[in-house]
Amino acid sequence: MADEMEIDEPTFEIIDEEQDAADQALAEQLEDALQIALTKKSADQVPLLLKILQEESSSARIVPIKERTIYDLTRAYCDAEQYEQVVIFLTGETARTFLSQITNAKTAKVVRHVLDIVCTAAPSQLIMQESVARSILNWTVEAKRSFLRQRVEARLAKILFQQENYIEAMNICDKLLDELKKLDDKQLLVETHLLESKIYFALRNIAKSKAALTASRTAANAIYVSPTLQAEIDSMSGTTHCEEGDYNTAHSYFLEAFEQLDQMNATEEAVVALKYMMLCKVLHSLRVALKLSSEGVTGAGTDNSKSSVVDVSGMLTARQGVKYAGRDIEAMSAIAKTASNRNLKDFQAVLQEFKVELQQDILINHHLNILQEQLLESNLIRIIEPYSCVELHHVAKLIEMPLEVVERKLSQMVLDGKFCGILDQGKGQLIVFEEGEKDKAMEKGLEVIANMDMVVTSLFERSKALRTMMI
Is pTM, for the whole model, over 0.90? Predict the structure, then answer.
């Protein structure tokens, strides 16, 4: 028996060595075939890449080559704009055979990367991206691949968010979060809560957006988070603080996001973070100069032009200035310059000149609209301050804006209590009153009446309760 074992062991070693040599030779052949295929045009690459995937071997040396082949085949289909072929190939027999030979986690990675390639190849074709994602989602449901289905659903929700289909995206997120909390999948929880926060922010529900962001940060503290995802979390934190008027804190969050994206050479995302940093700088400087509160209330006597100069030139090093130079940075620099001069006409001209760069972003567009209203109020108060009675036509001429806009804004400011006055529309005049001292006796009397009302209400409730007990 011992002699037989001594004979068998070398035999197994020889077989393993032969198999290993054969796998290595096959891997080299497939590698050469892959390199040759990539030198061809997109249309000529497809047959060669499919031939590599049809190889039956599934050894450890072959799997990475086949994985790369799937990615290259997806790029070839995208270059030829044959996006439907990606779904047919991924759900067909060739890819199904390969995906059945690898683990579920590896399968999820491959499918997610294929979706990323499709979305990157045609970022503006959101309807096509949705169609591809839904097709893959249906396949995952039929194949009962729950782990992969959750990843594809998360991607679909992100595509719907980009389409501004917020309700359906939120429904997918709610359903997905219920499943993920049971499974305690921290990584996907972080991503889904972050997307939920973005959706609520787009719907202008800031309280729920902050709650979702807090949940995302809590889940992120328990695991390793990639620098890209951490930059997204920091950017969203800056967005919520900016919405609350805490521009200094928002600037620090955007700076953290920018530094991480700059180190990864993610230029496109870094430019967005840089624009947000410049926006916070402009808003904070003007708040200090115009004595604005976080609610946007304008103080009178705001003739502080020299102190309101907004300097954004020192935010970048010379190398970064060259790296990120472009219309986006020019647009924010122009906004900073016109805001420093507090010239509404130039401000509106900049908004029209850089319409794409400034008005397509939700955060920038929203705060520039607020900034425009604040500048208009500040300029109007500065113009009417010396007068007790002034013609509306004269005010509109000085501020270089249409009479209807000036009249509507002044009436709104009177109603909001920004200054005391009335509009005489018959004569086309604004009559401004001096703010008199507050009548303290009247205020105290109103407080006494309010307190008496509370006492009477309380006594009525007690008598009602005693009457109920007696019955």
Answer: no
